[in-house]
Amino acid sequence: MLSKNQQKNICQLSHKKHRQESGLFVAEGEKLVYDLLNSGWKADQIYSTEPIQQTPYTLISFSEMKKISHLSSASPILGVFYLPYYNSIEKTHKEFSLVLDNISDPGNLGTIIRLCDWFGIKNIFCSSNSVDCFNPKVVQSTMGSIARVRCHYVDLHTLIDDCDTKVFAATLDGSSHYRESFPSEGLLVMGSESHGISEALLEKIDHRITIPSFSRRGGAESLNVASATAILLSEIFRS
């Protein structure tokens, strides 16, 4: 049985402040929990409504699970994991990495993390005003990819200034991405859903690219940032 204090602490992990103070975050669902465990992530507690094997756990009722779940429909298994500590940030950019400026929607960030996992991108560099990657909604939408992609929250201006490889910015007024030859090393900067890349950061980037629209009837004004990221990464890794 869960105590009221345990329930309270798990529910508070929906807040970034509490995650940072406790050093813990929540992952729900069998695939997600086992992806993290199989990747070597350390669990503080595993709760399950059914008997499970291979890992220590606490058996609870489904009514108790609903009280601690961060989902609209509770999963049979919930894990409380320790936040990872990345002891170094790869700033040499000897591979292609993604940069995210003020991405606020948890679903978009989660989808972008999955995309990076698909294309083999290991590191995402996020602005401090982007949504926390260990937000329960972000973690859930990564479908386990959070175990394989590292999100670093850094000063993007310093990151760009220190970068010695090509940096691309996704904008509405750049050259067509179909005409660009992408190197094997570099950075792709994606901006917020509503405002794009901040002007101050954009001034530091010389290579601006855009996804051309083929609509003849006006069409959509812009693409969802996760959709745009998928299109651009597909072209970058095509060759």
Can you tell me about this structure?
- The protein has 239 residues and is α/β, with parallel strands linked by helices.
- It has two domains: 4-82, 60s Ribosomal Protein L30, Chain: A (2-Layer Sandwich), CATH 3.30.1330; 96-236, SPOUT methyltransferase, trefoil knot domain (Alpha/beta knot).
- The protein is 31% helix and 21% strand.
- It is built from nine helices and ten strands.
- It has helices at residues 4-11, 16-22, 30-38, 62-68, 106-119, 136-141, 156-162, 199-202, 225-236; strands at 24-28, 43-48, 58-59, 77-82, 96-100, 123-126, 150-153, 167-176, 186-190, 207-210.
- It has a six-stranded parallel β-sheet with strand order 7-6-5-9-8-10, with no helix packed on it. A four-stranded mixed β-sheet has the order 1-4-2-3.
- α5 (106-119) links the parallel β5 and β6 (123-126).
- The chain is elongated.
- The protein starts with a helix and ends with a helix.
Topology overview:
Layout: H1 4-11, H2 16-22, E1 24-28, H3 30-38, E2 43-48, E3 58-59, H4 62-68, E4 77-82, E5 96-100, H5 106-119, E6 123-126, H6 136-141, E7 150-153, H7 156-162, E8 167-176, E9 186-190, H8 199-202, E10 207-210, H9 225-236
Parallel strand pairs: 2-3, 5-6, 5-9, 6-7, 8-9, 8-10
Antiparallel strand pairs: 1-4, 2-4
Helix pairs in contact: 5-9
